[in-house]
Amino acid sequence: MALYILQRLMLLPLLMLVYSFVIFVIIQAPPGDFLTAYVATLASSGSSMSAEQVEALRQQYGLDQPMIVQYWLWLKHLFKGDFGLSLEYQRPNADLIGEQLGLTLALALFSFVLTWALAIPAGIYSATHPRSLIDHALTVINYIGVATPNFMLALILMWGAFAYFDISVTGLFSPEYADAPWSVARVLDLLAHIWLPALVLGIAGTARLSRIMRANLLDELNKPYVVTARAKGMKEWRLVLRYPVRLAFNPLISTIGWYLPALFSGSLIVATVMNLPNIGPLLLRALVNQDMYLAGGILLIYSFLTVLGTLLSDILLALVDPRIRVES
Amino acid sequence: MADVAGVKAEDRIAVASNWRLVWWRFRRHHLAMVSAGLLIFLYLIVLAPDFFSTQDPERTDARQAFIPVQTVRLFDDGKLSPWVPAIVGKRNPVTLRMEWTVDQQRKVPVKFFASGYRYKVLGLFTSDLHLLVPADPQQRVFLLGSDRLGRDQWSRIMHGTQTSMTVGLVAVLLSVILGVLLGGISGYVGGKTDSVIQRLIELLQSVPTIPIWLALSAALPRDWTPIQVFFAITVILSLVGWTTLGREVRGRFLALREEDFVLAARLAGCSRMRIIVRHMVPTFTSHIIATSSLAIPVMIINETSLSFLGLGIRPPAISWGVLLQEAQNIQTLALAPWLLIPGLVVIVAVLAFNLVGDGLRDAADPYGH
């Protein structure tokens, strides 16, 4: 088991290297380089930079050299924790990303927990009461949930809250806590706000997950061991929770690998629509303004989170399913 | 007599082709049948969006911004004579904003299958026939309201349907070609080729899709024509889309490679290509069709999301996502909630695709029932 985890961990830097190269090629692709855009921005805002300063920056980032050298320099800076400078915000990218990374993770993980907490009981209920009213309702919700783009749901909720209750459901904090230092009151305020975006983000996943749980559990419930346990007089709810649910659970764990990364990417859209402090909207602005090193840094973070999510699910799966351990 | 009928039905099943069997099973899903009808209708709009439009989708008029929905009434005084209620505007003296009210008393007559503005059908021939136009050509009717520039939302949705439905179809077509080709090679050749393709699939599947798509779209040159952007977006979407299908096709090939009928074909002297194309692929064509019909809605949602964020299809091209950009501002939305209608169209279309896909998947699986 330890060997398996070690193997997977060793693959991680290699994967990140491949991703970092692909990302660098993509952020390099738009015409013009970062410095020309920077000088143009300065000129439009009225200030200017001396030729020496421009030259110094050009050397620092190696912009006069071939792309592969530039990539190497970027990588070297990254290893020192230097993500470069944002031309739009005039601040180090590492600070900009760092400020919002925590809340980005909080939103995705909260959404993940909410999804599972809702989907598993719903799936169990549907499987033990097939063709009941709630089962049918969940089927309908599943179809609509999967068919509704995240941003559409966010828009409808925000519009409804604004038009009928005259409240604004954007942001993660009330105005008085937005820039306040962390305190118990601020955490409570965050919890009061975070559930709505988390729900919007997770609704399609919740619906799908509960359907998978239902299908898996229905397969298990017809097996002889369930009949045997029932014949021996075991209480129904205890029987269901103890044996078939545990078996039906296994395939779900393998879905974490794609679900967690999907949450990270999906949060980009929800955060943009609902105006949340999140690296998603930051990336969007950086891409539109050609703030390339900021965009590159955020893309790298997304890739890292994605790889980490996949790794986590592989390890979890190996933990609960001995067959995978044997194979490796 | 009942027995004879039963035997007849059994005979019919015994001699029916695989496709006929799939059709019979599919027909039993009523929801899937209704959805299939809806999709056919949507693709009719794709063929000739101008026929369904009531006016030029690009026609702007700042004085007719945010006009609410005008519903078509078919009967006037018990006679068949279609009309829509007129809209009267009054400027609010405080906010200085035009406020529109529906005046049920004043009727604007409309005509079905009459002539309006001229348009080209698929670039082949011109026509001026429209499904519905106002009887007085000077009048404008807004069946689904107008946006902030006074453009007719109904006509714009018709044109958006053309773009969005085509993006989904083309992107899935590309994915299928890539998936069957690479998945087939991977599964049939095996060995080193197989592991290289498998690693590639794993790499692509663990890419953070939305951020990478956004970065790729942002890298598209600004001076590209809408057609170029359109094809670039479909390629970007299918870059990841093919992997799922590639995996499935590979799995099927691996399983089929050892089957007796493949061995028989090989012993009979069939070439490798013939074995793949004539013997192996037909056994899972129906499965590929079902899977791809479930992939189209995913592509549509992705295109809509990218365009909504401003990094997909770009105006002046119209897609559902581009239309929804108008609905980004909550204050505007409170004033003109009909701007959310393109979103409902997306939901209905995706729902229809999913239902048809589920129906096809069940029908294509001979062991399902």
Features of the shown structure:
heterodimer, A: 328 residues, mainly alpha, globular, B: 369 residues, alpha+beta, MetI-like fold, 4-stranded antiparallel β-sheet, 14 helices, 14% strand
List the helices and strands and how they pair.
The complex is a heterodimer of chains A (328) and B (369).
Chain A: H1 2-28, H2 34-44, H3 51-61, H4 67-79, H5 93-128, H6 133-147, H7 150-165, H8 184-221, H9 224-231, H10 236-242, H11 244-274, H12 279-288, H13 292-320, H14 322-327
Helix pairs in contact in A: 1-13, 5-6, 5-8, 5-11, 6-8, 7-8, 7-11, 8-11, 11-12, 11-13, 12-13
Chain B: H1 2-15, H2 18-27, H3 30-47, H4 49-52, E1 73-76, E2 79-91, E3 98-121, E4 125-134, H5 153-189, H6 191-205, H7 209-218, H8 226-257, H9 260-267, H10 272-280, H11 285-308, H12 320-324, H13 330-335, H14 341-364
Verbal overview:
Chain A is an all-alpha fold and 328 residues long. Chain A has 14 helices and no strands. In chain A, helix 1 runs antiparallel to helix 13, helix 6 packs across helix 8 and helix 11 packs antiparallel against helix 13. Chain A is globular. Chain B has 369 residues and is an alpha+beta fold. Chain B has two domains: 87 residues, no CATH class; 208 residues, MetI-like (MetI-like fold). Helix content of chain B is 59%, strand content 14%. In chain B, strands 1-2-3-4 form a four-stranded antiparallel β-sheet. Chain B is globular, with a radius of gyration of 26 Å. At the A-B interface, helix 1, helix 6, helix 7, helix 11 and helix 12 of A face helix 7, helix 11, helix 13 and helix 14 of B.
In short:
Chain A has 328 residues and is mainly alpha-helical. In chain A, 79% of the residues lie in helices and 0% in strands.
The total count of helices of chain B amounts to: 14
Mean of pLDDT of chain A: 82
Runs of chain A with pLDDT <50, length 5+?
A: none
Portion in strands of chain B: 5-15%
